[in-house]
Amino acid sequence: MPNTTKTLTAVAAVLLLVPLSDAVAQRRRGLVDVSPASERHGFWLSLGLAAGTDSYKYENVPGGYDHDLTKPSLWIAAGGTVSPNLRLGGEVNAWINEYRDSESGYKVTETLVGGLLTGQVYPVNRLGLFLKGGLGISRSAAYVSGGDDTGETGFAYLAGAGYEIRLGRNIFLTPAVNVMFHRSSPGRDALADPDNLGGLRERVFTIGVGLTFQPGR
Fold first, then answer.
1. H-helix or E-strand containing 32?
2. Which residue of 4, 20, 59, 137 sits 20 to 30 Å from the alpha carbon of 34, by its own alpha carbon?
3. Which of 45, 43, 216, 204 minimizes the C-alpha distance to 138?
4. Per-residue confidence of the chain (217 residues) as pLDDT tens digits?
5. Which of 182, 187, 115 lies closest to 154, judged by CA?
């Protein structure tokens, strides 16, 4: 009889511990699911609109950057989050100027478009401030309706900063400033011309605001 009593007591203890362990496990899973709202994580997508000031110069022409012209600029970027302090991704940044040529009457669209690999560094984990840099390729071009199109493809690099302001759990308002540089060469035939202007150096300084979406882990 004593052995039977001990056995029944042990079985009762096990039966009591099983639901208790399940309850603890559920509480732990619940704590994991509720992550801090300020954490940066997972895939992200950013869309933005800005005012962009374009200026340029040629290597063989004395003087600095000139011909400042402010027109609309936009960007679209996407990537992943390495850590709360670092995001990596790709970005397309475009400056657009449309006008009608007074002499020919043709519609002209001037663009500077860059496709870059970018990194965003957040110096303080709990703040939305970030510093940004990027490298890639770019094209400076003029498209003429009914005429000849011209353009040069070259090397691009970008530097900037911004701030993410939380609007919702996964949506941020993102004011930002950027400057994108374009460098290209006119090609061998142009280099042989004594009147060649030299390589093109172009830059666009932008001030704008975007929306950044962080859909999930």
1. helix 2-33
2. 20
3. 204
4. 454 444 444 444 444 444 444 444 444 444 333 344 457 889 999 999 999 999 999 888 888 888 899 999 999 999 999 999 999 999 999 999 999 888 778 899 999 999 999 999 999 988 999 999 999 999 999 999 877 788 999 999 999 999 999 998 889 999 999 999 999 987 555 555 556 778 899 999 999 999 999 986 6
5. 182
Per-residue tokens: 187: 């090609």
122: its two tokens: 């957040």
Full-model pTM: 0.76
Instruction: Report residue 77 as tokens.
Output: 């970027």
- Token pair in block for residue 201: 């150096």
Amino acid at 166: R
Dig out the tokens for 5 from the structure: 């009593």
